[in-house]
Amino acid sequence: MGIEREGGWLAAFYFVYFCALGAFMPYWGPWLHAQGQTPLAIGILTAAVQFSKVLAPNLWGWLSHFWGSRRIVMLGTLLTAAGFLALEFSDGHFLVILLITLAFSFFWAATLPLVDAATMDWAQRRSAAYGRIRLWGSLGFIALSLGMGVFISNWGMRAFLPGILVFLVLAWWVSRHLPYGIPTHPSHQLRPRMSPVLQDAGLWFFLLAGLLEQASHGVYYAFYSIYAEAHGLSSSSVGMLWSFAVLCEVAFFWWGDRFIRRFGVPLVFTASFFLTALRWGVIAWWPGLLWIVLVQSLHAASYAAFHLAAVHWVSERFPGALRARGMALYASMVYGLGGGLGALAAGWSWAQWGGQLTFAGAGLVALLASVFLIKGLRGSPTLEKKTS
């Protein structure tokens, strides 16, 4: 398989995977509402999706040593699609929807960390840029977050599940062609051990920092649209702001590897945390149209720069056969636990103190995260040194 073709399959997977996610995230709550679910039930079902990312990626990352990443990614995408098909027959019953949600989330959480690990392996072998492959995911997210709105406007909420199902089936088909690297055969060689890198305190400071940084996004993902509309923006303007933020994310993914090479992971990492804090502070205290538009460009820092630096950092400390498990640990702690706790904390804080103080609090959380990040980056040895 040539380098262009391999990169094309990886880009295609990110695109269709994030098409499904872009259709899911903005319209999961409205679909549940259309099924007659109460606000409390919607909160529980949304949290179930997030918290499934805590344990599932670690389990699938461990199983990848035995089964191989290809088999797990194919299985995960196919069974996730089956879960969305099953939702068609849930008839609005909360417990049925909850069980199906836990099931499809468990399998959905298996796929992306393993593909991220495969992409980093491929990029290092081919001297290619991870960010220029990953940006296709952001483009897919934009395409379907906007496109699903068009579908729903024309056909109603009955377009929600089939629209996601199509892209999950495509993700399964594309996953058959991904370059997963050289498979390992446990019966013929020793599996590397995780214990040396898990003894590195810097790893846990990094994970705690990442958890807090992502937790600070909880108020943004849950309440930004409501907050912006409360300050005079129309629904269409809010949608354009979301799209603008992801376009800035795409731009950083395109050039981000150059930033990493020129300035290094620690500097890019640290800058992303401080700019995240600045982003939430501006939204809290200067919510006017001009500032709120300009600050959306900082999504390039709070998400794209953070994620790109994190993938490089994790890849350095979990080389070779351990990379899939390292990516799984990162995904579960940062996006699973951090995202879930952030969403719950944002809901509680919004009800107690309102939007301004909740966004201000998110800025303080991002600043606190930078303290742990600096401790994690300070002289953390690589895994190769520990196992040499």
Automatic annotation (TrEMBL):
<dbReference type="Pfam" id="PF12832">
    <property type="entry name" value="MFS_1_like"/>
</dbReference>
<keyword id="KW-1133">Transmembrane helix</keyword>
<keyword id="KW-0997">Cell inner membrane</keyword>
<feature type="transmembrane region" description="Helical">
    <location>
        <begin position="135"/>
        <end position="153"/>
    </location>
</feature>
<protein>
    <submittedName>
        <fullName>Transporter</fullName>
    </submittedName>
</protein>
<keyword id="KW-0812">Transmembrane</keyword>
<feature type="transmembrane region" description="Helical">
    <location>
        <begin position="40"/>
        <end position="60"/>
    </location>
</feature>
<dbReference type="InterPro" id="IPR026032">
    <property type="entry name" value="HcaT-like"/>
</dbReference>
<dbReference type="InterPro" id="IPR036259">
    <property type="entry name" value="MFS_trans_sf"/>
</dbReference>
<dbReference type="InterPro" id="IPR024989">
    <property type="entry name" value="MFS_assoc_dom"/>
</dbReference>
<feature type="transmembrane region" description="Helical">
    <location>
        <begin position="95"/>
        <end position="115"/>
    </location>
</feature>
<feature type="transmembrane region" description="Helical">
    <location>
        <begin position="203"/>
        <end position="227"/>
    </location>
</feature>
<feature type="transmembrane region" description="Helical">
    <location>
        <begin position="239"/>
        <end position="256"/>
    </location>
</feature>
<dbReference type="InterPro" id="IPR020846">
    <property type="entry name" value="MFS_dom"/>
</dbReference>
<keyword id="KW-0813">Transport</keyword>
<feature type="domain" description="Major facilitator superfamily (MFS) profile">
    <location>
        <begin position="202"/>
        <end position="388"/>
    </location>
</feature>
<feature type="transmembrane region" description="Helical">
    <location>
        <begin position="327"/>
        <end position="351"/>
    </location>
</feature>
<keyword id="KW-0472">Membrane</keyword>
<feature type="transmembrane region" description="Helical">
    <location>
        <begin position="289"/>
        <end position="315"/>
    </location>
</feature>
<feature type="transmembrane region" description="Helical">
    <location>
        <begin position="159"/>
        <end position="182"/>
    </location>
</feature>
<keyword id="KW-1003">Cell membrane</keyword>
<feature type="transmembrane region" description="Helical">
    <location>
        <begin position="7"/>
        <end position="28"/>
    </location>
</feature>
<feature type="transmembrane region" description="Helical">
    <location>
        <begin position="72"/>
        <end position="89"/>
    </location>
</feature>
<dbReference type="GO" id="GO:0015528">
    <property type="term" value="F:lactose:proton symporter activity"/>
</dbReference>
<dbReference type="GO" id="GO:0005886">
    <property type="term" value="C:plasma membrane"/>
</dbReference>
<feature type="transmembrane region" description="Helical">
    <location>
        <begin position="357"/>
        <end position="377"/>
    </location>
</feature>
<dbReference type="GO" id="GO:0030395">
    <property type="term" value="F:lactose binding"/>
</dbReference>
<feature type="transmembrane region" description="Helical">
    <location>
        <begin position="263"/>
        <end position="283"/>
    </location>
</feature>
